[in-house]
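We include the pair:
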Amino acid sequence: MTRPATALGPLLEGVVDYAGLFPPAALDMAGAVAEYDARRRGPDAWMLGRFVLPAARLDELAAAAAPLWARDETPWRLSALLGPDIAADAARVSAFNDGHGPRALVDAVELKATTPEAVGPALAAAPAGIAAYVEVPLDASLDALLDVVKAHGGRAKIRTGGTTATAFPQPQDVERFLAGCVRRGLPFKATAGLHHPVRGEQSLTYDANAPRGVMHGFLNVLGATALLRSGLGSAQALDLLQEQDPAAFRVEAGAFVVRGHRLGAPALRAARGLLAGFGSCSFAEPVADLRSLGLLQ
């Protein structure tokens, strides 16, 4: 379970927040708990982050996972999605942590705000002392939203896809979000549509006759963040977000090379200091794809 000694270590450690309860996987609680437990004990556990679930299902999680927590040496880290009644879900999170820590701990919450005016009250109602990620729309209010999230001590969240082609934002909009967070030193996470390392056309669900669409790649998003954080411009970041050739991504001794830009461990750690990770309903898929590309042994 030790992370690789290559540059992929600092780039990908703990990067995948497991969201198997959500589409397109949409597992039941027992199935998602079993999958997360198996991946925690597998050889690629160094890439695994939090278990993601709605705050309203915390008690259901406890019932399904309590036997596993009794034998685990390390606690399960959880990210709880807060619904429209943020205060009620915040109370659920606090009660869960009081009753189940340190075997399992909600140490991040995720919520939505569609206007700058909604951000302050939403974060004020969120649980105190827990990292709070605010999902924001990629519209004309983006800069104002990011300003307010930063001012209120929150973190940002970008939705990068879904189960329909229209759910995937344009690369230009993703770049605006990344650049906005980098300029402000604002930590953020991504969610949905990042199952694959490199941008390309993929099936959007696991159905036999699933529709297809172009999905963003998590190496594209991570690499673009690192380029912006290293001082390169939006044009280079946008080019990287649109890159569909796997050969544009290479691992060399002590560096990750993207479209000819050599990113060493300090640059990768700085990027991950901003991009906390991404939610994915599959953990096996990102790992398998990295291996198929020869980037992971």
Remarks:
- DSSP finds eleven helices and 13 strands in the chain.
